[in-house]
Amino acid sequence: MIKMIRMRSIRNMRTFLSIALVSVVTAACVSLQTASDSIVQEPAAKPSSEVVLRSEVKWTPLNPLRGNKSPKAGTLWGDPDRKFPVATGFLVQFADGFSSPPHIHNITYRGVVISGLVHNDDPNASKMWMPTGSFWTQPAGEVHITAAKGATNVAYIEINKGPYLVLPAKEAFDRGVRPINVDESNIVWVDPPGAPASANGPKIAFLWGKPRDGQLNGTFVKLPAGFTGKIKSHSSTFRAVVIKGQPQFQVPGETDVRTLEPGSYFGSKGETVYQVWSKAGAESIIYVRTEGKYNVIP
User: Fold this and answer.
1) Residue 267: which H helix or E strand, with range?
2) Sheet arrangement for strand 60-61
3) Measured between alpha carbons, how far is 71 from 9 in angstroms, rounded to an integer?
4) pLDDT value, residue 55
């Protein structure tokens, strides 16, 4: 009998503890739900797009200290004055026959020739005139000159961090990095990742970085004449500059179709799908800077 009473007492105690535990958990859940309901939830960031036509670019001296001898600069994205520690992309317009004195920059920049012919190299190097679609890099601290010839000379320049300064050659320093000049004829075109092989389809050229999520990289996209399709960005940041041709473009959420002449820019934040067309009889080349991946979909 005593053993039975003890067993019942133990069972009763277990039942009591189970009920108590359920009550505590239920109360905690109600409390958490009440707290959750009282918090204002932040809305998810919506994709945003921007477009800057070349005709809308505002030009200022690239190097104000040289006055009217300075090339002109027009910002497409980033810091308009190129003075602050942020990434920036801008156009540079050179006069026919322009040639700079030997100089250095405090930071590294990348360049793409949009029109005319551009030479950028060591002061003692023979001229290597780079045409439309050529790509180059200029490391910080390296002494060089920049020259241009042609009726219209425009290049796209981008920096990862400002300020962008022009300094005398005597302040040169060496970080162990050398300049790269890639003529348009040496660009290597391949089929876009995931796309079927096609002789007449869109092509891509890898210029710098690696096209991985969260990593900055730069590429060319070539759209054949008469192309109709989409460019889909999966990146947090997508920036594109028209280098060649006059592709037509539709901003997500808008009905207007715009024609983008070389030097025009479009960009977005968040996953975005662009409708693009390349005019019949003329291919288009677009430079893309992105933090991740994108697809070209015919």
Assistant:
1) strand 265-269
2) 60-61, 72-77, 88-94, 145-159, 109-121, 135-138, 180-182
3) 94
4) 96
